[in-house]
Structures are given as C-alpha cells and as structure tokens.
Amino acid sequence: MTVLHSVDFFPSGNASVAIEPRLPQADFPEHHHDFHEIVIVEHGTGIHVFNGQPYTITGGTVCFVRDHDRHLYEHTDNLCLTNVLYRSPDRFQFLAGLNQLLPQEQDGQYPSHWRVNHSVLQQVRQLVAQMEQQEEENDLPSTASREIL
Fold this sequence. Notes:
Layout: E1 2-4, E2 17-22, E3 28-33, E4 36-50, E5 53-58, E6 61-65, E7 71-86, E8 113-115, H1 118-133, H2 140-148
C-alpha cells in the first residue's frame, strides 16, 4: 500500500496546513498518509473506498480522513477535489481544541462523509482560496490566519 508523506505536500516543516488541488482526480490506488485531510468534492463523480467501505461522491461531498485511514478513488468521472491537509489536530500553533470540532468515532462508527449544499460549498471555496493566497507566507500572522480559516 502506498504511504504519502507530509514532507512531499507541506511547503515547510512548520506549516500546519497545506492545500492540494486535484483537478481532476484520477483513479488512485489505496493509500494512507502521515497527515490528516479534509477532501472537498468540487464537482464530478467517483467512488471513494474508505477503510474498505465504498461511498459514491459528488459535488458537495466533504470527507474527513485521519492519518490512519486507508482510502482510494475509483470510477472517477471529471472528479475535481480540493484537499485541505493538516498535520494533526494537536499540531496547530494558534488553534487549541480543534479535535473537538472534527467528527468523532463512536461505537466503532466514524462519520467520515458529509454533504453540504451549493451555498455552503461556495463559502468553503472562498475560505480555501484565502488559505491558498497565504500558503507561501511563513510569518506568524499568516500561519495564524491559515489555521483559523
């Protein structure tokens, strides 16, 4: 199984957040990574096999992937994603308690896949665009802004 490493995706060792667009996302074999990921499906369709369970994903799907989750993409059709990568909920410098805001596993069930409407997807796109604009900056105000967004 492929392992993706944060050193290949984060602009610096200090960066807690990175944006990784996949425009389009082709079929991709099963993998996991040493970072967490919020997958935002912009448009298109595909099958996201998450820890062995297949999910149909379309525009407006949001997936929360932890560092120990295994996943793959198959049967993609013009599937365009934006991945918001973060090292770990406890690696943020300016935002404490992030883990409490993320989906939590209960009774062996992890609510990994969510749906947002078009209006919310537009808001998410704007936030991601702001994060991308500040991605090259390594100063403390830019880091704080990316984490808060």
